[in-house]
Amino acid sequence: MDSALSQIVERVRASASNQRPLRLRGGGTKDFHGGAVLQGEVLDLRPLAGIVSYEPSELVVTARAGTPLAELEALLAQHGQCLPFEPPRFGDGGTVGGMVAAGLSGPARASVGAVRDYVLGLELVNGRAELLRFGGQVMKNVAGYDVSRLMVGAWGTLGVITEVSLKVLPVPPAEATLRFACTQADALARLQAWGGQPLPLNASCWVDPVDDGTGGPGREGTLYLRLRGATAAVEAACRSLGGERMPQDATAADWNACRDQTLPWFTDRSARPGHALWRLSVPATAPVLALPAGVAAPLIEWHGALRWVQAPLAHGAALRQVARQAGGNATIFIAEDGHSTSASGPFDAQSPAIAQIHARLRQAFDPAGLFNPGHLVGAAG
Length: 381
Description:
Elements: H1 3-18, E1 22-25, E2 41-44, E3 51-55, E4 60-64, H2 69-78, E5 81-82, H3 96-102, H4 109-112, E6 119-125, E7 131-135, H5 147-150, E8 160-167, E9 169-170, E10 174-183, H6 184-195, E11 201-207, E12 220-229, H7 231-241, E13 244-245, H8 248-260, H9 264-267, E14 275-281, E15 299-301, E16 306-312, H10 316-325, E17 329-334, H11 352-365
Parallel strand pairs: 1-2
Antiparallel strand pairs: 3-4, 4-8, 5-9, 6-7, 6-8, 10-12, 10-13, 11-12, 11-15, 14-16, 14-17, 15-16
């Protein structure tokens, strides 16, 4: 055990002995999430950095938790490989451990899978200062419950992730983005129809950049559809789907902006005081949602399954009810002041059964409640 890892284990042991909670932190790029009131002494995981192993021919990479995400993606790019789920960055300095703990995925999630689908194994320090390892470096390596994937989206509440093994994939040989002018209802109908066809769909985004809440459901916006895959498949899809094909060099930056929430639709929220950013996760087949009066149209990703809404906290009950009626849930992603402490009750109510499972897992991994107290676990993906 090297010095960086030893120091983390000893810090957890001391905190367990003194009953002092720890706030686990990598690059801090997701501190805004959900309006959680972050507590505890900061445990900086950035010193625990470096690529442990990388086998391009095996499509497997193992990295320590504090490794900068940008460093990992640059290494993969040198070999024509990538993290297909496009982890959001939200700023400079994001780490591999933070990516896994948050469990957030980018625009391609509905087509390629989520973070948890690419986690092969990991190492962590639990609340008893025990160094544990789960999974491995191959896909079929788990007998029983896959604990390594349980840590994805737990926001560090179950343990300190120290090392992660990930499956990676080759960068697709071809890509194209198509643009369609259409209403929200038309966009959802098209996405559902295309989803049932053998098309190289990768990501989608429908947005009405000027909707101020006064427009009706028939208001026209823009649907962007990204295709990725074999060159022949992408070219054939472009011919059959129609729309306007966008210049490749221009769209790459736009998709990154969608991933990192730097599109004007997201950044214009600063002009709407008191508005939180809500994340509505619903079935892709859900129709246009009946949002409260005065709430602008959502930005829609994941072929209809992810709908971002900007609205005051006063609309929280209505948004949650709308999402539940559609078979999903609504959570606060960014509080109304743009940061951490002002939102209360950010997550949708859990069923008693799920809440009991969460409590038992917390008791098993962190019985003293040392890690990230105050950080509630919401929807990831």
